[in-house]
Structures are given as C-alpha cells and as structure tokens.
TrEMBL record:
<dbReference type="InterPro" id="IPR000073">
    <property type="entry name" value="AB_hydrolase_1"/>
</dbReference>
<feature type="compositionally biased region" description="Pro residues">
    <location>
        <begin position="191"/>
        <end position="206"/>
    </location>
</feature>
<dbReference type="InterPro" id="IPR029058">
    <property type="entry name" value="AB_hydrolase_fold"/>
</dbReference>
<feature type="region of interest" description="Disordered">
    <location>
        <begin position="168"/>
        <end position="206"/>
    </location>
</feature>
<dbReference type="GO" id="GO:0016787">
    <property type="term" value="F:hydrolase activity"/>
</dbReference>
<feature type="compositionally biased region" description="Basic and acidic residues">
    <location>
        <begin position="170"/>
        <end position="189"/>
    </location>
</feature>
<keyword id="KW-0378">Hydrolase</keyword>
<dbReference type="InterPro" id="IPR050471">
    <property type="entry name" value="AB_hydrolase"/>
</dbReference>
<protein>
    <submittedName>
        <fullName>Alpha/beta hydrolase</fullName>
    </submittedName>
</protein>
<dbReference type="Pfam" id="PF00561">
    <property type="entry name" value="Abhydrolase_1"/>
</dbReference>
<feature type="domain" description="AB hydrolase-1">
    <location>
        <begin position="28"/>
        <end position="177"/>
    </location>
</feature>
Length: 309
C-alpha cells in the first residue's frame, strides 16, 4: 500500500444529488463502487493499494455520507445509481473503457452499469451482489425485504436490522423457508415435530452493520447512514431484476465473486447461481461479505490479479 499517493477530493452535481468522490493514483481508470453504508471510507485501504497502478475513484453513493440528496425522501433506484457511476467514469476518463469493482449493493450497480453501458466498460468485478430475484426461491427473499421494511416502519432501525441479519445468515435462510412452509399448511395442520428441540441460534450479526462498524474512517458517517440504507437501499436494490440474458452475453468481461467465508449465506448465492448459469468461474475473495474491510491487503492483491487478466 502506498500511503504517499495524493488523494484529491471533489464534488460532482448529478440529477437529484451532489456526489462526494475521491481520486488517487495514476494509470488506467478504475471505479470502486461501495456497498452498505461505508461509502468511500470503506474502500480507502484497497484504493490506496490499487492506486500504485490505477487511477482509482471512490465515492459516497447518493444519500449517504457526504453525498446529499436534493430530496431526502426520494426513493432509490438502481438505474439512477448506475447513472451516477457513469457520470463519474465520464469525469474520470471520458470515452475511455474503464474497469469497475462493486461490492454488495455496489455490485448491483456495477451489473446494471454493464448491461446499460457496456461500451464504457472493459471489466466488471461484482462481489456478492444480492440480486435475489434471480434465485429460484426469490419469493422467500421478497418476503424478507417486505418484513424488513415493515419492521423498520413500525418498530425502528435496530429491530429491522435484526430481521435483515437473520434473513442474510445461514440459519435465517432455513428459518424463512420453514416460515413459508408453515404458511402453506392448512389451519390446525401440525408440522412434523423435530426429533429433538433445536438449540436457539446465536443472534446473527448483520453483514452491512459489520461493514459500518469495521470502516475505521468516519464511523459516525457509516452508522448515520443505516436508516437510509434499511429504509431506501434495501427495498430498492433487493427488488431489482437484472437482465440475465444481457449479462450472459457480456459474461466475457464480467467476473462474479464471493467471499470464501460466505458460503451458505444469502449474499453469496446470487453470484454463485449466475456463475453456474453462465458457465463461469466463481472467484473467491478472502473473508466474507465484508472481506474488503477485514482483509484489505489480500483482497486488493487478488483484485489486482483479476483486473490484469
């Protein structure tokens, strides 16, 4: 990591928002799209490492951190966030094909950017995009999003985060299916009793909350973004339906990735499903869903190799 590289911070006016972005390094253009609430701060370590050979742009997505919305109540759409990313690419390298990395909700943005503006992209790395609508059991996860939204409305932030965390975890996914099976039974119809009562699971830790906690820079900013994330990003992004046929046609420039510690968790499954459908390798990065903050050096090393390929 080269900590001596100068970081240039600036703002960019886009439709309905002002984007704070940071540029570091020299070389081919590379846009890093953050997930969760971490914004540019969550990518600082990886960006500083990659800036030794790329011109790296990071930013706070609209509505988060230092990128205020003109209308704080505006609903969030993936296509609008992808247009923001395109505007940053046009500012960074007008007309030049670029490399893009996105994580989590940022990976959803990267997928849409590829399908809508493939001529501007040389390679896209999508790390655990939670595009649950591509999964065979999408209805289960659609119900999860509805529960998160309703819990946030009626009970507040932390209960909604607990519901969200349970749905993302290995145990939570099984519980969601059991809930669905219970709903399908007729009134009074008994469930098959387990041979032994199951031990209550440990309360899972929300992946995106971990991201907020682990971002060493500006922790107040990341925590402050949680209401916006739960109330606007989760329902707006997890209901997004990607153009799978278009992605398949562009799979030669798409790298689908997941955390090596994420197997069995919900954010892992869409990337694995799409990679299998496209006949492509699923690349495993160190750590779990938030590996870029927990293992930044190893994460950047592998990302560099992928971008060079």
């Amino acid at each position: 990591m080269n900590g001596s590289l100068r970081v240039h911070g600036a703002t960019l006016r886009v439709c309905g928002a002002t984007l704070h972005h940071e540029v570091r390094g020299e070389g081919p253009p590379l846009l890093l799209i953050p997930g969760g609430t971490g914004g540019a701060a969550s990518l600082e370590a990886v960006a500083a490492d990659l800036a030794a050979e790329y011109t790296v742009v990071t930013y706070d997505p609209r509505g988060l951190g230092r990128s205020p919305l003109d209308d704080p109540e505006a609903e969030q759409r993936v296509a609008e966030h992808a247009d923001d990313a395109l505007r940053l690419l046009d500012l960074l390298a007008p007309g030049e094909p670029a490399r893009v990395f996105g994580s989590s909700s940022g990976a959803i943005v990267a997928l849409h950017l590829l399908t809508a503006h493939q001529e501007r992209l040389e390679r896209v790395v999508a790390h655990e995009p939670p595009v649950v609508e591509v999964l065979p059991d999408a209805a289960v996860h659609r119900a999860l999003v509805a529960r998160v939204r309703e819990t946030f409305r009626t009970e507040g932030l932390m209960p909604a985060m607990a519901v969200f965390a349970a749905g993302l975890s290995k145990d939570g996914e099984q519980a969601d299916r059991k809930d669905g099976e219970s709903a399908d039974r007729k009134d009074g119809e008994p469930a098959n009793p387990p041979s032994e009562p199951p031990e209550p699971p440990e309360p899972p830790e929300p992946a995106e909350l971990r991201l907020a906690q682990q971002a060493a820079a500006r922790p107040e900013q990341t925590m402050a973004g949680l209401p916006f994330f739960v109330g606007r990003i989760v329902p707006g992004f997890m209901s997004y339906v990607p153009d799978v046929d278009r992605l398949a046609a562009l799979s030669d420039r798409l790298v689908l990735a997941a955390g090596q510690d994420s197997r069995g968790e919900l954010p892992y499954r869409p990337a694995a499903y799409l990679a299998e459908r496209f006949g492509a390798e699923l690349v495993h990065f160190p750590g779990g869903h938030t590996g870029l903050t927990t293992h930044p050096v190893a994460f950047a090393e592998l990302l560099r190799k992928i971008l060079r390929a």
